[in-house]
Design goal:
Distance between the termini: 45 Å
Number of domains: 2
Helix content: 25-40%
Shape: globular
Largest sheet: 7 strands, mixed
CATH topology of the largest domain: Dihydrodipicolinate Reductase, domain 2
Number of strands: 17
CATH architecture of the largest domain: 2-Layer Sandwich
Order of helices and strands: EHEHEHEHEHEHEHHEHEEEEEEEEHHE
Strand order of the largest sheet: 12-11-7-10-9-8-17
CATH superfamily of the largest domain: Dihydrodipicolinate Reductase, domain 2
Number of helices: 11
Strand content: 25-35%
Length: about 325
């Protein structure tokens, strides 16, 4: 089997996850890495026998690169997707797709002109329970969905220690992007208006200039309503880093999706924990989980000339919704998507 060369832009947490998963795919090999921090790029490249490029422009120009992974801070995604597509490379970009609808339009246009495959890593669509829920809703088992509530709340560890660029984003961009994609997919509909509010004080008091929590109520074109909650000020003593819950209420039934405890609880002398394993895990030394399945899906779309499950147009809609969320926070009024 001939292998596709992968170039990774960004050598942080997700860049390393992508590299490990793609190195395990029989049809791909990591050939190039670039990052804002040279040392981290060299470390990741060394782990996979790849070369280091000085910047993204050099990486996308590398003739051995067939797929570009964009694993940078949120606001840098659009330019790199455009550059990769214009160089004729397939693209896998971390969520959110972009942080500006106009930039999203430019990226979609660049991908469509080039005729390459591209997908945002909305990996929650590959969590088995979420995929099962979407299939049951599509089959009509709960009737037409009319109401949703989606909560994704993190501990303070995430904005304070895990991501060094938390001031450049918000909990809604970082967390609710997943839930907005999921609920739009399950509703098979798009949001038309948004009313949102934010609270702050805890993180700014700790030196991180970003809101503590955001709630947004969204009305869909078909009349359904969804509330999206994101927060990242849970105390680090909470037994899981992420408290994730989704409820879908239909005309004839309801679905609850609670990921707070992912089938395992561990108590030691130091802590009581719910370890996470649905998204990223290693089973008998082999990468597994929803992130792996989503990444492999894009690889197989490239290999077999198929369109990915997550379309760029749906990812662009998530960006538009989140942009309206932040406009509403600023204006204090409902905003049109």
């Amino acid at each position: 089997m001939s292998q596709l060369g992968v170039g990774i832009i960004g050598a942080g947490i997700m860049g390393r996850v992508h590299a490990e998963i793609l190195a395990d795919h029989p049809a791909t090999r990591v050939v190039a890495v670039t990052s804002r921090t040279r040392a981290s790029a060299e470390k990741l490249a060394g782990d996979h026998g790849a070369r280091v490029h000085p910047d993204p422009a050099a990486l996308v120009a590398d003739p051995d690169v067939d797929i570009v992974v964009v694993a940078t801070p949120d606001h840098l995604h659009a330019a790199m997707v455009c550059a990769a597509a214009e160089a004729g490379k397939n693209v896998l970009v971390e969520k959110p797709f972009t942080t500006d609808p106009a930039e999203a339009d430019q990226a979609v246009a660049a991908v469509r002109r080039a005729g390459v495959k591209a997908m945002t890593l909305f990996n929650h669509r590959w969590v088995p329970a979420y995929a099962q829920a979407q299939a049951r809703i599509a089959a009509g088992d709960i009737g037409r969905p009319r109401l949703a509530y989606a909560r994704k709340n993190d501990t303070r560890h995430v904005p304070i220690r895990m991501i060094p660029w938390a001031e450049g984003t918000t909990c809604a961009w970082f967390l609710s992007s997943h839930d907005i994609d999921l609920v739009c997919w399950m509703f098979d509909d798009e949001v038309e208006t948004v009313y949102a509010s934010a609270v702050d004080g805890v993180l700014r008091g700790l030196g991180v200039d970003t809101p503590d929590a955001i709630q947004a109520q969204c009305r869909f074109r078909g009349g359904g309503v969804a509330t999206f909650e994101s927060c990242w000020t849970y105390p680090d003593t909470f037994p899981t880093m992420t408290d994730s819950f989704v409820e879908i209420v239909g005309e004839r039934g309801v679905i609850h999706l609670d990921r707070k405890c992912e089938q395992i609880e561990i108590a030691t002398e130091d802590a009581y924990q719910y370890p996470r394993n649905l998204l990223v895990r290693t089973v008998h030394g082999v990468p597994a989980g929803a992130v792996r399945d989503a990444i492999w899906h894009l690889v197989d779309a490239v290999r077999h000339d198929r369109e990915p499950l997550v379309t760029l147009e749906s990812s662009r809609h998530v960006t538009a919704v989140l942009t309206a969320v932040h406009r509403s926070i600023a204006s204090g009024r409902p905003e049109v998507v």
